[in-house]
Design brief:
By secondary structure, the chain is α/β, with parallel strands linked by helices. The protein is about 35% helix and about 25% strand. The protein has ten helices and 14 strands. The structure holds NADP nicotinamide-adenine-dinucleotide phosphate (NAP).
């Protein structure tokens, strides 16, 4: 069984440690590393990981670790993935994979040269609803899909990693990445036109933004995010004969299908645990099959996603100090 190590002992690392514990018949929750041994130990004890390390280097030097889950601020993903690759570890890295396309290309080149698995943990791409939504759209039941509306608003600007340019802060890379992936999943990764507007904070990162992706055949996606307002993550795929409503794009356990404006049915996709189990299972399957990427989030998708976010940030003049 693959042995899993976690880098970082913060918010999402704690949540995922619970998922790895739940999946212990499929992957071994083995080690947690933090710059604070106390924090690593607390997570390891709570979720039955065998080892706790007080530095990332120690975890990466442990030959028993097969795969590393990176759960640190965006700004650190690139450097930490390079460290993992140097130590011959497979990687599941939190979103955004890196802060820009150029960094991601370097990671993929190095991982390819070593035959290592690497994947961006955009967990929404792996959920069971995705396959079903694609089936409904392809079936023609709702006519032609023409227009997507999706957003993610959560008041988390108080977090240091959201506020500071040196930690690659801003709404887009943390929140807007989800509506972007929603559009990419159902309308594709090759918009012909990208337009946008953003309000920047006094530190020069995006507080909120709206952006539209226009496709060659006239389909359009209207997307956005805010790190100062409540709003959740609703999404709709509007088609010529009806639409699909997804009240909670992030925890999508239910969709509503309407013909015209009449509700026809609700379809449910209850999670087995909390929804993160699907990306982890996909990772295990790929690594065990000797593959370097997943079907749900191939490397090309991550590059396309980052290229679009690079374009948006260039439109607003948001550049991080280390770029
Ligand atoms: N998939 C999801 O649903 C989801 C949800 C939330 C976040 N995320 C992603 O996960 C990543 C981490 O988010 P989070 O909310 O877990 O962050 P967090 O709790 O603020 O920080 C996570 C860890 O990163 C390290 N860290 C924090 N600030 C740092 C700094 N200034 N310099 C160096 N290291 C620092 C710390 O590691 P030590 O333990 O070593 O001190 C901390 O425990 C982000 O990329 C975010 O986009 C994903």
């Amino acid at each position: 069984m693959l042995k899993l190590g976690i880098l970082g002992a913060g918010n999402i690392a704690t949540k995922l440690a619970g998922v790895y514990n739940f999946l212990r018949n499929e992957i071994e929750p083995y080690a947690v590393a933090s710059r604070s041994l106390e924090k690593a130990t607390a997570i390891a004890e709570k979720f039955n990981f065998a080892k706790a390390y007080g530095s990332y280097e120690e975890l990466l030097s442990d030959p028993a670790v097969d795969v590393v889950y990176i759960a640190t601020p965006h700004s650190h993903h690139f450097e930490q993935m390079l460290m993992c690759i140097e130590h011959g570890k497979h990687i599941l890295c939190e979103k955004p994979f890196t802060v820009n396309e150029q960094q991601a290309r370097i990671v993929f080149e190095k991982a390819k040269a070593r035959g290592l698995f690497v994947c961006e943990a955009v967990w929404t791409r792996f959920m069971p609803c995705v396959k079903r939504i694609r089936e409904i759209l392809e079936s023609g039941e709702l006519g032609e899909p023409r227009y997507i509306e999706a957003s993610f608003c959560a008041p988390i600007s108080f977090k240091e990693r959201m506020a500071l340019p040196e930690l690659a802060g801003g709404a887009l890379l943390d929140l807007g990445i989800y509506p972007l992936n929603y559009a990419m999943l159902y309308f594709g990764e090759d918009p012909v036109k990208i337009t946008s507007a953003a309000v920047l904070t006094d530190k020069g990162v995006d507080e909120h933004e709206t952006f539209t992706l226009q496709y060659a055949d006239g389909r359009m996606a209207m997307l956005g995010s805010s790190m100062t307002a409540f709003g959740g993550a609703p999404a709709r795929i509007n088609c010529t004969k009806g639409h699909i409503i997804c009240e909670k794009m992030l925890v999508c356990e239910e969709i509503v299908i309407e013909h015209g404006n009449c509700v026809i049915r609700t379809e449910k996709f209850p999670f087995e645990y909390n929804g993160y189990e699907y990306e982890i299972r996909s990772m295990i399957k790929a690594i065990e099959a000797g593959k370097c990427e997943t079907e749900e989030t191939p490397w090309s998708t991550t590059l396309n996603e980052l290229r679009i976010m690079d374009t948006l940030r260039a439109q607003w003049g948001v550049k991080y100090p280390f770029e």
